[in-house]
Here is the input.
Amino acid sequence: MTERILEVEGLSVDIPVPAGMLHPVQDLSFHVDRGETLAIVGESGCGKSLTSLALMDLLPSRATRRASKLALDGQDLTGLSERQMSDLRGNRMSMIFQEPMTSLNPAYTIGDQLIEALRRHRGVTVGEARDRAVWLLEKVGITAARERLRQYPHQLSGGLRQRVMIAMALMCGPDLIIADEPTTALDVTIQAQILHLLADLQREFRTGLILITHDLGVVARVADRVAVMYAGQFVEEGTALQIFQAPTHPYTQGLLNCIPVPGKTARGAHLGTIPGIVPSLVGRMPGCHFAERCRYVTDACRADAIALRDATEPGHRYRCVLSPEETAAHNQMETAQ
Amino acid sequence: MLPYVLKRFAVAILVAITVSMITFSMIYLSGDPALALAGETATEADIENIRRVYGYDRPIVVQYLDWLYRAVQGDFGQSHYLKKPVSEVIFERLPTTMLLGFCALVFALTLSIPLGVLAAIRPNSMIDRVALTIAVVGQAMPSFWFALIMMLWLGIYWRLLPVTGTDSWANFVMPSIALGYYITPAVMRLTRAGMLEVLSTDYIRTARAKGLRPMTVLFKHALRNAIIPVVSLAAVQFGFMLGGSIVIETIFAINGLGFLAWESIQRADLPMMQAIVLVLSIFYIVLTFLADMLNAWLDPRIRVG
Here is the structure.
């Protein structure tokens, strides 16, 4: 029996800007089960980072969050005060950020920063908190962990700092971890290590994981389910297998065509690109958000808002006027080229 | 930590030596010191005599080393006017000036740092505007004028505080405010700017994502980082304050080092002026050194290589 850790329905974020109202996150609905990894994929500026901040209620003060349902392990989060929310943050739900170089406070030791959340939420002694910190540092593959507690962030490399951030997120044994581009700022060689580490720990602790990334290679390796985000909306969602084997939305197809496949993509062959840029999200946009960049665009695309519809397999949904058969045909033509 | 301390200490010593050279050469700035001492009606023989007695006939390097050798032992020679040892007079007056400087600094920091923090938490709010007004007024208003206005209202019209003298703690209230207000604007603006910058950093977001209480985020995580440049600035401003104390002590007739400096300038008492400049400079150098040490304690990137 799967246990629903996070349930989100109709999540939206609005930010007033000089030009009008910005809608970076529009009516998202998704869920995460215990021990499951949901990847939210999209290019820069599609609203994926704001989605994660909205879940943690850490949005900038100008931004407003709306949701018809937002529940962590059955507990409703929408009506919580800032104080009640801070009791959950770092405790039941924690976050790993993109920038390990700047996400740790330069003035305090690693140990100090590791034990803080546990001391705040569980009221354990410094000694007990240190023991857990050492145990977790060893879990994330840091040697001489007890000595490391006395070190300052500037004495550690980026990879080590991100391991510390992961250990920090696990300190209170959270139900849900949100990792916002956790490997983007790291060396390519380190990226894979950190990713495997995250996946292993998530399996071991049976935590729900939301992995936010623009890197489909990352997604393929660790995600159970994938939501593809474009201009504030999910344009396609399904299991990782469904997304990679039968991409149905033209945007997802475009994204997958951007990745070279070893052994399949011929040397010197053209890698796919998606022409154009992400549209402005100021004001309401009628019709499909991807219409301006889509090569199969018709008049029907621009008329009305397009709802998510079921693809051929259950659980696989996409937001397009074309039928699954039509887009599949397009996709085959693309890949053949 | 130790290499850093030693390096800072060596720099402090070098600065002190440079300052002592400049201070020593001060006596030659206004011409032949023997001539100045002898007075207008002196004969050539009198001047020659004075030159020999005071040792002005020796090579200048010898004179400097001799002066320095005595100075480090606390012997600054005789005051030309008071006919007493200079060091005796200085050590009599020094505690008053130190007390005034300390009170002024405490006033300045307790006003400017909380105001700067509050202004940064709520930028463009009412409190930010009040803080800005205080800063602009403080920057624009000469401290001697502010001192006189305070004397007029608090001392004479309302009779709340004594106007001059050093009889009780009440005498120090107005001078401390006048002197401290001088350094408040810069410290406050830097605190505000530092806090604003730090509050938008990633590590503050991390601290909030841990669910830490707002006060912990603000004081433990933000202020400690924002205060680092403020410490350096406060030390520099304190140096200006020592200079400002000459004006303030004179206005309030406080028998401190600043007032003594003013008196000595009027009396052309060179050894006294020399000693005062040197003592104030050393004061300043020690403070800068202490500020460096405080910063090293606050910022491990300085402390741990």
About this structure: Chain B has two domains: 2-72, 86-303. The radius of gyration of chain B is 24 Å. The mean pLDDT of chain B is 90. Residues 214-251 of chain B form the longest helix (38 residues).
